[in-house]
Amino acid sequence: MTHAIRFHQTGGPEVLQWEEVEPGAPAAGEARIRQHAVGLNFIDTYHRSGLYPVPLPSGLGSEGAGVVEAVGEGVTDLAVGDRVAYATGPLGAYAEVRNLPADRLVKLPDAISFEQGAAAMLQGLTVQYLLRRTYRVQAGDTILIHAAAGGVGTIVCQWAKALGATVIGTVGSDEKAALARAHGCDHPIVYTRENFAERVREITGGEGLPVVYDSIGKDTFMDSLSCLRPLGMMVLFGASSGPVPPFDCGVLAKMGSLFLTRPSLFTYAAKRADLLAMADELFEAIISGKVKIEINQRYALKDAAQAHRDLEARRTTGSTVLLP
C-alpha cells in the first residue's frame, strides 16, 4: 500500500488529506511510476479551492518525475527502469506511486535530476509555448512578465534573455527584484510602490510592448493592456489574483487593435509529437545552461498543505518540489 494526497471537498489547504491508496497494475496504454519528486504549481491551488472544478474526491498535482515500475499492454516506447517526467497527464501527481497514460510521459535525460525534472516540466513547458509559440520572442524585443521572481517568471527571464530580449518584470519586494535581476530581468518593477504601466512607458520611451505575459489576472489585466503598443499581444495564462471580469472586446480596438489570448499548456501539448518537441527544446535549454531550474523550497509530500499555505502567501520563490 502506498500513499497519496487527496481531497474530498474544496477549500483551503486544510482539505488536503494523506491517504493510503492502491494504484494497482497499469492498464493498457499506461505505465506505473515510482515518483522521486513532485512539482508544486499555483494551478494546484485552483483545483483545491474549486476555482477550477474537478470531480470529487480527487487527487492533486500535474507534474512529477520518477522511474517506470511497470507498463501496460501496448506500451512499446517505455520500459521498466526508464527515468521519466510529465506535466500534462490527469491530476494525481501528489502520490508516491501512480499510473499514467504512457503517451504523457517523456524520457528524462541523465543530465537532469528528478527534482529538476519535476520542477521544470509544467513551468518550463509553459515558458516554451509562451516564448516560442504563442508569441515568438525575437532578439531586440522588449517583453513584460508578471511575477518575475516566481517559478515561471525566473525561467521566462532566463530564456527570453538568452533569446536576446529585454525583460521587464513585476515583483512584490526588493528581495524578489534582486532575484529576478539575477535571472536576467533587466528592469524589475516593485509593484507595491511603483505603477508598472507608467514604468513600462518610461522604459520604452512611450512606445509600449509587443507582448505582455500575465498570470495575475484581475488585478493587473487592464494595466497590462495599457502597456502594449498597437497590434500588441496580451497573453493571459493565469489568474492568481482572481479571474478577469467580463469586459467589452471593443476595448481591444480602442487600445490599438490588440490581440488577446488565454492559452493552456494542455492544448499546446495535446499531441504527443508536440509534447516531445517542446520537452526536447526545454531539456536542451536546461542542459546548455541557458535556463537554470532554481529549486528554493522542498517539502515532504505529506506536508503539501503547508506548501500550499506558503505558496498562496507568496512566501516562495523560484520552484518548489514535494518529496515522497
TrEMBL record:
Its EC number is 1.6.5.5. InterPro entries: ADH-like_C (IPR013149), ADH-like_N (IPR013154), ER (IPR020843), GroES-like_sf (IPR011032), NAD(P)-bd_dom_sf (IPR036291), QOR-like (IPR047618), Quin_OxRdtase/zeta-crystal_CS (IPR002364). GO terms for cellular component: cytosol. Gene3D superfamilies: Medium-chain alcohol dehydrogenases, catalytic domain (3.90.180.10), NAD(P)-binding Rossmann-like Domain (3.40.50.720). It holds the Pfam family ADH_N. PROSITE patterns: QOR_ZETA_CRYSTAL. Keywords: NADP, Oxidoreductase. It comes from the Bacteria. Residues 11-322 form the Enoyl reductase (ER) domain. One of its GO terms (molecular function) is NADPH binding. PANTHER family: QUINONE OXIDOREDUCTASE PIG3-RELATED, QUINONE OXIDOREDUCTASE-RELATED. This is NADPH:quinone reductase. The gene is qor.
